[in-house]
Structures are given as structure tokens and as C-alpha cells.
Amino acid sequence: MVASECEPWAKTGGLADVVDALSRALGPAAPGGLGHQVDVYLPMYRGLVPPAGSVPLELDVPVGSRDGHERREQVTLWTGPADGYRLRLVEHGPSFDRDSFYMDGAHDYADNPARFTLLGRAVFEAIRLEGRPVDVIHGHDWQASPGLLALRHRYAQDSLLAGTATMLTCHNLAYHGWTPREQAWQLDLPGEVGVPDGVDLLREAVRTADLVNTVSPNYARESLTPEYGAGLDDLLRARGDDYIGIINGIDTTLWDPATDAALAAPYDASDVTPKAKTRALLAARHGLDPDGPLIGVIGRLDPQKGFDLVAEATPSLVSMGVRLIVLGTGHEGLVAGLVEQSRQRPDRIAVLERFDRDEARRIYAGADLFLMPSRFEPCGQGQLIAMRYGTPPVVRLSGGLADTVLDADEDPENGDGFVFGPATAAALTDAVARALTAMSDPTRFRRIQAQGMSRDHSWREPAKAYEAAYRRIVRA
User: What does the mean pLDDT of the chain come to?
Assistant: First the structure.
């Protein structure tokens, strides 16, 4: 695995959770693990400490030529045990010892191409030095793309690497790693790679990887259209059967209301009544009137996630008796609008502008409903966690949300949530109204909760799908 994030060492979003949980599910240690040896290569960002017992390996990494001079960098690779896989931290202070992972304030670091080229090159130099062939290099998002491209363009004749298969997972097609031509020298790729203006790293990796996937079957289909393909729909269509969707899972050991220490009381599918204790404390802590439906919202406050719809719909939701608790950071205008509404109705609206893991757990467990109105959502984990915690989700019919949530009105026997189509505040409000109607019938609502809690959203089946994908491309 080659990635820019991995839980718990480096995380800004769901990518980190996927890399960690999938690696464990593929490895030998997890219950039901598939028994493969998995290495996860990750930049050693500021503040990261190698796991106890880690062993350093010094690497001399070629990173290309400029002005006739070959450039090489000295890198330390720290290898230590993680939970079911080997963590390999690539230490290079000038590249990774910085205030943030990707950006200097509001702008991408100008040398991001060089930083993530170095990450990929360190992988290959470690393989060469250790002399151990590798079946698959699995890269995640555009940050792994320089490495996948280098394998095809710079290491193709290397005896150890020539037979290595490549897989690229696109967690979010909106981010391409565009590199202007004047910066493309940092990639150390042939000049014909890309277009005259520069190199679209994700596009080039989609073009050259043996197999490409995204993180849900429905998003894979959606991304074949101009609306969702982020400028790559033509190339994704051209890949045919070599572009697939594999749904994400969640770590059902880490996300388990029966053992979650952040909650006021444990519970499971056999008895959800202890949810009420966490709910009462959650409402009290944030000054919300507890005598009405409580809806939780967690995520990046961004139009992509539909938070503008939330802001627009909030007055209508409040008039319907809803209490709303929002946890997240993001778009300043959206945050300001929601905060202003909370000032006007502090008994009905709480906005927590921060990243808070424990409070997120308490919202998943303590809310009556979970709102996730994304304009596009490659997979999403919030709806899966909410269902695991007995909190039916209200979601927009998009990407992986459509793959994982069954509308309880359309399918009364199997429904586990509520789904709406148009990306409008009116459609969102209507879906919430349907959910509130269901809540008024405790027997029916308990059935909806039970359906969600009974779903297997673990990594067991997704890991098998990735294993099958690897077998498709591994060379004999």
C-alpha cells in the first residue's frame, strides 16, 4: 500500500481509515484476515513516531535530473509492526517535516510533485535493496500516482519490479494532483507524459495502472458521466472492465456500541434502550432541549457534502421540532451561517466547529437520526457507522450512499434509512419528515434500527473483493 494517510498515524479524512482497515483485513492477524503480507508506506510527517521496535533502513533515492545534474536524496525508512501489517515510514525532513500534510495555508505546497515522487521512489528502492519481489503495488489517490507512473516509466526494466502489478484506488476523483509543466521536472518522468501545459497525475495513473477502482459500485457507474467523472469520465469509460467499484467497509471492532468507551452506556442490537443515556448527556452538554427528535450531522462542512442544503433547510427542520447537532470544520461561509442560526436558537441547534473523535462517537450513538445529504459521495462511512449504532441515516441518493442505505418507505421489510433524490433543501426536509413519521411508531422505528444494526458492513467481503482484483492482475 502506498498512501499519504493511514489511521491512526496521519488522517484528514476517510482515506486514512480505509488504508488501515483494508490492510488489516488483508493481513494475517485480524479475525478472518486473509493472510497476506501487507506493507503500508506512509510519509513520516511531523510528530509521527515509529512504532516500538522499528528498524531504520538508509536509502539513496534517485529523484531525477535537472540542469544536467542527477538528483538523489538520502531517506530513512522506518519499519515496524502495526496491527496486522508492517508500517514503513518514509523519513525525509525537507519533504515531510512540515506544519501540514499538503498545504501551506490555503495553497498546495509547490513541491508536492517532488514530495510524493520521493515517497513512491522510496518504495521501489526499498524493494530493490531488500531483494524481495512484490506482487502488487496498490496506490491510493493522486499522491500515489507519481510512484505508479515511475514504476512504468523508470523501473520497467528492473528485474525485481518488472513483474509487479499495479492497482489504483480513486477515493475522490475531484483531486487530480495537477502539476504545471514548469514544475513537472519534479516528477522525473519522460517529457511526453501529460499534455503541453503539464501533468494530470491522477489521469496518467488511471491510464497506466493495471486495474483502477473506486470505492462503491454506484459511484463507479456515476463517474462514467461528465457530471460525476471530474474530467476523467472519457478515460474511465475507455478502461472498460478494468475500472470497477468495490464498496468500503468499516472497522466493526473500533466502531461497536457494545464496547465503545466514549458512550454513557454500552448497548447492542438486542437492546438499544441504553442509547437514551448517551442521548440525554449529549443534549445536556450542548444546551439542547431534549424533548424532541435529535439529528446528528458529522463531516467536512462543504457544498460537496451538502452542508449548504443543511443550512438552508435548518429553519424548516426547527419548525418541525428537530434538534440539530453539527460537528465539523470547513467552508467559512457555511460555518458562519450555521453558527448564526445556532445563536438564534441555542436550544435547537448546536454547532461544534472542531474535529473531535469521542464526540463524534457520542453523536453517532446519541442522535435519533443521522443526516448525510452529499451532492456526491464516493462511498461514505458515516452512514455505515450510524447504522451500526442504531441511528437510521437520512441520505441523498448518491454514490455509495445509494449502495448502502435502503429507504424504509420504499422497502418496509428491509429498509434501514431514508433516501432522497434531488439536491434541494425541500427534498431533504421531506425525507426528514418521513423519518419523523417513522419515529412516531416505536415498533416500526425499532425494526428500521434493527435492520441497520444487522447489516454486515465489516471489511470481510470488501477485502475478498480486493484480493480477487489482485489475482486478476498478478503476473504468473
Answer: 94
